[in-house]
Amino acid sequence: MSILSDYARRTPGSKEHFARVGRMIPAGATRSLNSWPPYPVYLDRGIGGTVWDVDGNAYRDFLANYTALPLGYADPDVTAAIREQLPHGTSHSFSRTLEAELAALLVARVPSLERVRFTGSGTEAVMFALRLARAHTGRPLVAKAEGGYHGTTDDVMISVRPPADLAGDVRSPASVPEMRGIPASRTRETLVVPFNDVTASRELLRAHADRLAALVLEPVLGVGGMIPATAEYLTAMRATCDELGILLVFDEVITLRLAYGGAQQAYGVTPDLTTMGKIIGGGLPIGAYGGRADIMGLLEPRGGTDVYDSRSGGPALYQGGTFTGNALSVAAGIVTLGKLDAPTIDALNRTGDLLRRELTGVFADAAVDAVVTGVGSLFNLHVGPRRVEVFRDVRAVDAARQHALFLGLLNHGVIVAPRGMGCVTTCTTGDDVAAFTAAVRLTLHDITEAG
After folding, report:
1. What is the band of 376 on the pLDDT scale with cuts at 50, 70, 90?
2. Nearest CA to 134 among 297, 222, 225, 247?
3. What is the pLDDT of residues 184-211, one digit of tens each?
4. Who contacts 328 (Cβ-Cβ below 8 Å, separation ≥6)?
5. Cβ neighbours of residue 56 under 8 Å, at least 6 residues apart?
6. CA 18 to CA 42: how far, in whole Å?
7. Under 8 Å between Cβ of 299 and 117
8. Residues 375/228, Cβ–Cβ less than 8 Å
9. Quick one: which of 268, 391, 286, 386 has its CA closest to 330?
10. Mean pLDDT for the chain overall
């Protein structure tokens, strides 16, 4: 039986739902990541490290809503916190004191945070952090790394996965809009630097320094292939930004889980601003950004009563959002961060190390070229390349075989992202790692047999 026919046999309910919902929701899902050929799987529920689809199939979930659920699904302590908050309201017109508790937890553990603000998502956090950087420096441009993903606003949906024929020279990448609808003006306002290339990145930053407000970096490229930055690169970018008066922004929406104080603590490099999301909301929508007090001070009113009008004493930068700092997300985040102490994060990282070692062994014996990247509790499977060390190596991925691996793993009861990204959670056991490894081995065999 082929991978595709086995998939169809196991998921008739998902196929039927896709046909019905697709008439109302484009692509059958409100999140583009959740739609793939021939049709997506639709989930019914999740507990711990296991989810079930509408056909009753159980899956070991190694994606955890794209890393947002470090404690797995329906953690009893998180669920209790949400249940306790519900009778008191889900969101409110005015701030509640719970915000201060979550803010204090973040400021205490993340080295760069002197002050912090909450947003509705990681995308919003990046948007406000870059706006703040422009307001602080008076400069119009921002720089980002090729392959870096920082949410879906226009100025960062640039050169996330640029095609080879448009990407330009490896040492001076072109700024390529990721999709239609992004104005050319925003593309011109975003400088792209080559990730992990110290010399070329430094030269580009120096060449545009008088107009650059910020350099925003993921310490580990997420969408770009789960490729860790080198310590040399982050250290050099910190020094270069200091030299040129550019604000260094770390996007830790994904990497905050890598150490008690995030990737910045693990690398020993402190940015000026940090953006966060995912794990700080315990599985509910949230984002946050924070950093140096003098920069965050631009959010303070200056004696006026109209918070919208900076000319009459309002803040230099206004931030709003109906569900910003909502009570449910904050309550869930407080519990989640409380449970993610340093020993727990160390254990998560050891589990991730074990998984990558086991997968590397499987790939060494396979007839199909494949590698695993990542660090700590994060990983990414790549079918086709023999190595992935920089973003442009990801172009060697065999798209057809990568998709076959994804579907094949679903057939064997394992969930990762279609592009091969995944993570481990506190629910991931040694049996889960063994089952995942076995599923990869079986699927690679099926791919080889299919030619």
Report:
1. very high
2. 247
3. 988 999 999 999 999 999 999 999 999 9
4. 82, 85, 86, 90, 91, 284
5. none
6. 8
7. yes
8. yes
9. 286
10. 96
- Confidence at 228, pLDDT banded by 50, 70, 90: very high
The residue to which tokens 């970018």 are assigned: 237
Taking the C-alpha atoms of residue 374 and residue 288, their distance in angstroms, rounded to an integer, is 24
SS3 content of the chain, % helix, strand, coil (to 5): 45, 15, 40
- If phi > 0 it is left, if psi is from -120 to 50 it is alpha, else beta; for residue 395 that is alpha
Tell whether pTM > 0.90.
yes
CA distances from 397 to 140, 143, 184, 369, 372 (A): 36, 27, 29, 10, 12
- Contact in structure between 352 and 377 (CB atoms under 8 Å): yes
Give the pLDDT score at 375.
98
pLDDT tens-digit profile of 287-308? 999 999 999 999 998 887 878 7
Please say whether the beta carbons of 407 and 7 come within 8 A.
yes
* For range 319-331, the mean pLDDT: 94
Residues annotated as part of the active site = 149, 251, 278
Q: Which of 23, 274, 284 is nearest to 126 (CA)?
A: 274
82-137: pLDDT as tens digits: 999 999 999 999 988 999 999 999 999 999 999 999 999 999 999 999 999 999 99
The whole-number average pLDDT for the span 141-155 is 96
pLDDT above 80 (res 263): yes
- In angstroms, the CA 118 to CA 99 distance is 8
Please compute, for residue 13, the number of CA atoms within 13 A of its CA located in the half-sphere on the CB side: 10
**Residues in a beta bridge with 117:** 289
What's the CA gap between 157 and 172, in Å, rounded? 18
Mean pLDDT (whole number) for 165-188 = 94
Cα–Cα distance measured from residue 175 to residue 186, given in angstroms and rounded to the nearest whole number: 10
pLDDT at 152 over 90: yes
For residue 38, cis peptide bond before it (omega within 30 degrees of 0): yes
Q: How far apart are CA 241 and CA 247, in angstroms?
A: 6
Place of tokens 């150490």: 259
CA distances from 347 to 72, 109, 131 (A): 15, 18, 37
CB atoms under 10 Å from CB of 448, counted, come to 12
Tokens 């442009």 appear where?
392
Residues 428, 353: Cα–Cα separation, whole Å: 12
Residue 374 and residue 100: Cα distance in Å, rounded? Answer: 33
